[in-house]
Amino acid sequence: MTDDGIAVLFTAIARYPRRPQWLSQAWEQAQACNEDSNDKIFQIDFPTWFAYQSLKSSVESSVHFVGQSEMRKVLEWLDNQPIHYRRAIAQKVCATIKAEDRSRILSWENRITRKRRCPDSTSPTPRLLRPSAPKHLPSTPHHTEVWTLQNTEVLGSGTLIDPSLSETKKLLPPYLFGAVKKINSGTRETASITMEYPRGNGYEICFSIESNKVENISRELFGALIETTYNGIRYLSCGTFQIIPSDNSTIRGCRVSSIIPFFGDVLGPAICASQPCQRDIKTLSEHTWAVSLTISHKFGDAALLVATVDLHQGTCIAAKLYDSQEG
Asked: Against a cut of 0.85, is the pTM above it?
């Protein structure tokens, strides 16, 4: 789809400054659709699905308006594309939805899909408490409250650490789950993951990465080639020259197109919706500072993969990761 085609999708979104009456029923029906249908493919997150659904609803509307025929052409063209191309379009739409549109649509999602977005209804419902004396609450209206969970381990104010392996495995795609360091305390197994808030207008989630996964992640996310000398010293290979960190180095400039394939359908859109990523996307940059990788010069050392996620989606991710603690 061309940029003009995606612009038509955003024009459809703009037709709904308030939550449409058909939204709850449409979302419920979308859950029963086939996996290769557009309703399923665009369910990367709720705003992305709504972008498609608003286009579909506008085309089917009995009220005629300027631009409706153009929307119909885009919808018909989209329906005839192969599944892999439609998935790529959905990812591009997800990454380019305006922050103000995303925030507005997410507020509707909170009203109609609370049970679906938060932990399974079969799990105990965690009690939510206000964090103690936060100093820097975001100022935008829809970010006026930050919540944490009572049954989490807390380091200081607004830090969540080491979720259970079972909850981590549910949330992360297989490769990222395999790359995260595991901790066995003797009584329970956890993943070496930390979430901190507020970090600007979002959460910061930090993954401790196994040493043997560092080179692949660096290449996949940043296009950075890390190599190792015969005596176990890491260095960045930059064609005709090398950069050898004296202690630690941080790599920034993650490819936006790699975020959702690597981080998955839950974390990926949350990163794309964060303020740093949205700022980079608005400048038409193909890379973002919303994700970074800090490496040591020693081959055997773990690395730290850090990502900034949207505040609202980060709150739900925290609930998914920390809703149950074993032991």
From this structure: no
Tell me whether residue 43 is exposed, middle or buried, using C-beta atoms within 10 angstroms of its C-beta: 0 to 12, 13 to 18, 19 or more: buried
158/198 Cα distance (integer angstroms):
7
Chain mean position to CA 303: 20
User: What number of other Cβ atoms are within 10 A of residue 230's Cβ?
Assistant: 5
Is the peptide bond prior to 245 cis by the omega test (within 30 degrees of 0)? no
Q: Across the strands, what pairs with 235? A: 227
What is the spatial order of strands in the sheet that 241-243 belongs to?
225-228, 234-238, 241-243
Structure tokens at 103: 């925030």
> How many degrees, rounded to 5, is the angle at CA 296 between CA 236 and CA 184?
135
- Give percent of the chain above pLDDT 90: 17
Residues 6+ apart with CB under 8 A from 96: 6, 281
Burial of 195 (0-12, 13-18, 19+ CB in 10 A): buried
Take residue 8 and report the two structure tokens written for it: 């038509």
Handedness of CA 276, 278, 279, 284 (dihedral sign): positive
The total of other beta-carbon atoms located within 10 Å of residue 266's CB is 20
Taking CA atoms, 6 is separated from 96, 101, 315, 326, in Å, by 9, 14, 29, 45
Q: What are phi and psi of 13, to 5 degrees?
A: -60, -40
Mean pLDDT of all residues in 132-139? 31
Confidence of residue 233 (pLDDT cuts 50, 70, 90): confident
pLDDT digits (tens, 9 = 90+) for 302-319: 899 999 998 888 888 888
Rounded to a whole number of angstroms, the CA Rg of the chain reads 21
Judging by beta carbons within 10 Å of its beta carbon (0-12, 13-18, 19+), is residue 122 exposed, middle or buried? exposed
The length of the chain in residues reads 327
